[in-house]
Amino acid sequence: MSVETKSLVAIVVNGEPCRTPAATLAELVHERGLTAQRVATARNGDFVPERARATTALRPGDRIEILSPRHGG
Amino acid sequence: MNAPEPAIDTRSALVLYGEAFPSRMLIGTAQYPSPHVLAEAVRASGAGIVTVSLRREQARGRTGERFLELIEALGVRVLPNTAGCHTVKEAVTTAQMAREVFGTDWLKLEVIANDDTLQPEVFGLVEAAKTLAADGFKVLPYTTEDLSVADKLLAAGCKVLMPWGAPIGTGRGLANPYALKSLRAYYPDVPLIIDAGIGAPSHAAQAMEMGFDGVLLNTAVAKAEDPVRMAQAFAQAIDAGRTAYEAGLMGMRDMAQPSTPVAGTPFFDLKHGP
Are B56 and A67 in contact (CB < 8 Å)? Predict the structure, then answer.
């Protein structure tokens, strides 16, 4: 009997290394409970628009930024 | 029937990228003692434009959403910044992210040269401005008082310039009034906003008397003992400075000159003799 295990991808999210079962950027945002929040994403320094998150596959070593509105000067 | 729109005196309104703002004050949203004080200070300032930023959101975080709801309730235009960006790439990516989240193509463009002075990195600033203006952004660059940089920013597509008064957060006022005066004289028709370094309402009034179109500040209000009253003080100073500029200041003289008429002075003959 074989057990299907989803492989984890080692990536860096907001500067912190982590391992995630998420296959795409959209899944990662969902996993972190931010789907309903207004956040913006970038992968390896490039902006990823919301509409492109579902087709943006996560690869080992990817550096992901998930940002949200904050006070500023 | 709809009530008429409140009249804006176009002579004194601040016009940026074709949009008119009754107040010539722009205010930052950082460093206030509480969200409530922030909201009250923005209201007291009368500012129609507030600066905001983007920062990392933690898993299951609600910080960004709560902040955005607070800002949206103020009914003002948001001006996202690229604070903390040191390269063209960082600034362009941050700008694109800000446009999506805040739903605006207005941008306070910052490319920072070093962390001690927070001085604009003007070469990267020009390059990023060119890329972003071509991509449809309305770029308001945080720059120095340098004329050659200003020329290149305008050529890059910026319709507004924001020269510094002094380094961010120093509260030193206008460090180089001579160069700022030159900049003002050189570009009489470009909206120029003094951004950063303002510490007191008198600094803001000075900038406005010199003919600058507006003032953007944050720390001087946020770090005041009473930010709400300080926001009012700045609003009054900026209004006073602008009105003085429009009224036309007298020229300076080296020698004293009596303001009371000399003719008919009593005892004049006794003092000066026949």
Answer: yes
| Confidence bin at B267 (pLDDT 50/70/90) | confident
> Could you give the CA distance from residue B72 to residue B94 in angstroms, rounded to a whole number?
21
Contact residues, chain B, for A47 at CB < 8 Å: 93, 96-97, 100
Task: Compare CB distances from A72 to B29, B56, B97 and report the shortest one's residue.
Answer: B29
- Residue from the list B51, B96, B100 with its beta carbon closest to the beta carbon of A72: B51
B108 is catalytic: yes
- Give the whole-angstrom CA distance, residue B17 versus residue A4: 57
Please, which residues 39-58 of chain B have a Cβ atom closer than 8 Å to chain A?
Answer: 51-58
The CATH number of residue A47's host domain is 3.10.20.30
Check: complex ipTM more than 0.90? yes
- Residue A70 near chain B (CB below 8 Å): yes
Q: Domain of A14?
A: 9-67
Q: How many residues in total does chain A contain?
A: 73
CB–CB contact B67 A70 (8 Å): yes
pLDDT digits (tens, 9 = 90+) for B221-241: 999 999 999 999 999 999 999
Question: Is position A72 within any domain?
Answer: no
Whether A73 is in a domain gets the answer no
pTM, rounded to two decimals: 0.91
A28 occurs within a structural domain:
yes
Q: Is residue A3 part of a domain?
A: no
Indicate the pLDDT class of residue A6, thresholds 50, 70 and 90.
low
Question: Domain tally for chain A?
Answer: 1
- How far from chain centre, in Å, is Cα A67? 11
Residue with tokens 């209201």: B43
Indicate the SS3 state at residue A52: helix
